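Internal tracking record. Fields below are filled automatically when a chain is submitted to the structure queue. Please do not edit lines marked as system-generated. If the sequence contains nonstandard residues, flag them in the REMARKS field before resubmitting.
Queue: standard
Priority: normal
Entity type: single polypeptide chain
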Amino acid sequence: MQKYSNKKKNITDRILQILDLKGISKYKFHKDLGFSNGFLDKSRDIGTDKYAKILDYFTDINPQWLLTGKGEMLRSEELASAQPVMKGTEGLKPIPLVYQDAVAGFGSGEFCISEQDVKEYYVIPKFKHTKVDFMIEVRGNSMYPKYNSGDVVACCIIQESRFIQWNKPHVIATMEQGILVKRLLQGSSDDTLVLKSDNKDYPPFEVPKEEITGIALIVGVIRIE
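SYSTEM-GENERATED OUTPUT FOLLOWS
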């Protein structure tokens, strides 16, 4: 199979390589996907929604190559024939497993997952009808026995506080303590939230809402015993 150069390391450059290979103009690309006309005019990271749209548009493109530049541009026909698609995975998009530090700003409207942020991908049929924005590994044992250190949790970003599901596990990004996995409870005032661990050795504590930069509901977990 033909290999393609990975010297261009920005995802925008790789999209341009695809257009050049397929003979598609930038104008047609922008129009078909609903992107702004200047989308490809400068190097940038892209959000997960645009990443998914591009993979829907170019079904023969290797998702890992598009995001990281690793491997081949096109999906390997040899690999496809040697590794049958599991029933229920057809059409599913890989979910990025990212480093904790990379999602510190996931509460921002400008949040996007960069190429260097992704550790690997998961294709999970059970999540077919569940919105998952990213996955991260749990650190520490404060949520034991619900979660063990090393468990992978699937996260759905919450944009408005009224969608918080009280007393359910969430991933919380804080300015001082970084990424935390806790249950969320209403605080003693409208300006605070209580973060509660399942491990009784970790007492609950209250934090000001202004200290919290992002909240994501945990919608699933992958555990290796």
